[in-house]
Amino acid sequence: SSPSLSLCLMLSLKVSLAEAGAGLGEKDAICNQEGCYAVFLQKKTFREARQACLDQGGTLVTMYTREAAGVVHNLLSATVVHGSRARLRLWIGLHRPPRQCSATKPLRGFIWVTAGNQEGQFSNWIRKEMPNTCAVPRCVAMTVHTSDGAGESGDNFRWAEGPCVMKLDGFICQYTYSMMCSPLKDEGGGPAVYETPFHFKSTQLTHVPYGSVADMPCPTDGSNPDAPSRESVLCIERDDGTVGWSKDAPLCSSSAPRQTLDWCSGEHECEQHCQNRDEDYYCYCSEGYILDEDGYSCKHKTPVNRICVDMGCEYDCSITSRSVRCTCPPGYQIGPDGHKCSDVDECQQQPCPQLCVNTPGTFHCTCYPGYQPDNTDECVDIDECLDEGTCEGTCQNTEGSFNCLCNPGFTSNSEGECIDLNECTEYSPCDQQCINFVGGYQCSCNLGFELKKDGLTC
Q1: Burial class for 322, CB neighbours closer than 10 Å (0-12, 13-18, 19+)
Q2: What's the distance, Cα to Cα, between the start and end of the chain in Å?
Q3: Looking at the keywords, is Transmembrane present (predicted)?
Q4: Calpha distance 108→96 (Å, rounded)
Q5: Range(s) for CATH 3.10.100.10 in the chain?
Q6: Which residues contact 105 (CB under 8 A, 6 or more apart)?
Q7: Are 430 and 456 in contact (CB under 8 A)?
Q8: Which of 8, 66, 196, 436 could bridge to 424 as Cys pair (CB 3.0-4.6 Å)?
Q9: How far apart are the C-alpha atoms of 219 and 189, rounded to whole Å?
Q10: Of 94, 74, 89, whose CA–CA distance to 41 is shortest?
């Protein structure tokens, strides 16, 4: 990316962040190598909360594993408590369409809002299943005690189902980022302030999401009164595919800028990629590789286990003291031969409100004809009548379909076209003479008679 393009993007992003003003506190969000989580204490229904997360590029939080739940619990334990409520109820990304109950599954027929292992074994329910609610949509909230030291005891962090239309105390969003920038070192004027794409400001991030802006305060430089008091940089994807800041550190100007050598343009020992530093260089590897202990060589992240290969396992294997067993990635299961992996048809579990399409390793939900997904992936009726060309006459929208009605004086033929209705032959409405014309008719009388006010009799 060119410096001018990065600067324009950075300024545009800072303006949009300032306009958004989300009001998250310093401890209301947390980021790790996989993404970020944030708590919003705003009263919303499940649908409104889900939309609020989507509007900022995230989703309602999902917890497929106990480890993922632990990250959320740590965030909630450290979050500054707003107000004096002893207990909060926060929406999470778990919901159940009508008539999808299951007494045998850990999630009880509920599904997470993001595509993943919907058959996961982790759950954290506060009470037994409520079968009398199976006919209506239900959504899940997490109970959070605001007192210090509540930990994971009692009903703290436990899940409870309820009506999706209730306005609860808040909700938890998660934001997935495949790329992160490293935090910047204090250059003498104080720590950098980071603004993430979901409008969170912090000086304490250990992983800074792609698209974030860093504002670095600079120390006063007596020898250079024109030196800027702060410098701003953007976390971007560079031309070589790596992620880093739009300007290399140090960001703050110095009265005597040091000269750096281009170590990587000459001979170096890096097997794959080389990156210059002030006094030397370092090596890094392409996606799918990690740097070896020698600091120069690259190796695969997940080397193939020779035992698994000898066993004939297609994907991987689990090795215990008693046996070796072939395993498969999520969305697949071991085939009859015990070695090959076959796709799991998740659609047999009916995870979707309308139609389910199975794909290798996963599935996706679609809608019946006459419906379309909205921006929260719920199927809503298509109003075909908004298109003026749908019907020749009058259009009547129905749930999942529509009807075309002919205007008065016309009737529908076998092909659904509106043609003139000959009232004179169909109904004989007139007392004496009937004259048909396109879209209507007119009565008249024989010589010596006159038409009455009803327009029909003579």
Answers
A1: exposed
A2: 88
A3: yes
A4: 9
A5: 35-176
A6: 119
A7: yes
A8: 436
A9: 4
A10: 89
- Asked if CATH classification 3.10.100.10 holds for the domain at 35-176, the reply, yes or no, is yes
DSSP designation for 257: P
Q: Is 256 in contact with 245 (CB distance < 8 Å)?
A: no
CA atoms of 185 and 177, how far apart (whole Å): 22
Whether the pLDDT of residue 83 is over 60: the answer is no
Over 70: is that where the pLDDT of 119 sits? no
Residue listed under structure tokens 């410098």: 231
Q: For 199, left (φ over 0), alpha (ψ -120 to 50), or beta?
A: left
Say whether pLDDT at 121 is over 80.
Answer: no
**Secondary structure (3-state) at 5:** helix
Q: Is 10 exposed, middle or buried (0-12, 13-18, 19+ CB in 10 A)?
A: buried
The CATH number of the structural domain formed by 306-344 is 2.10.25.10
Which of 240, 237, 258, 239 has its CA nearest to residue 249? 258
Cβ-contact 157, 142 below 8 angstroms: yes
* Nearest of 426, 435, 431, 420 to residue 453 by alpha carbon: 431
Residue 371 host element (H or E) = strand 371-373
Q: In the chain, where does the domain assigned CATH 2.10.25.10 lie? A: 260-303, 306-344
What H or E segment, with its residue span, contains residue 397? strand 394-398
| Nearest C-alpha neighbor of 118 from the set 361, 282, 408 | 361
How far is 359 from 373, CA to CA, in rounded Å?
Answer: 19
Asked if pLDDT for residue 394 goes beyond 50, the answer is yes
Residue owning tokens 């590897």: 285
Give the contacts of 242 (CB within 8 A, at least 6 positions apart): 273, 275, 284
Segment 199-243, tens digit of pLDDT: 889 998 999 998 899 999 988 876 667 677 888 899 988 777 788
Determine the Cα–Cα distance for residues 399 and 401; give it in Å rounded to an integer.
6
Sign of CA dihedral 206, 209, 215, 219: positive
Alpha carbon distances (Å) from 367 to 235, 289, 354, 357, 456: 38, 40, 6, 10, 52
Residue with tokens 């129905």: 398
Please report the pLDDT score of residue 322 as a whole number. 81
- pLDDT of the residue at 59: 92
* Distance from C-alpha of 241 to C-alpha of 409, rounded to nearest angstrom: 68
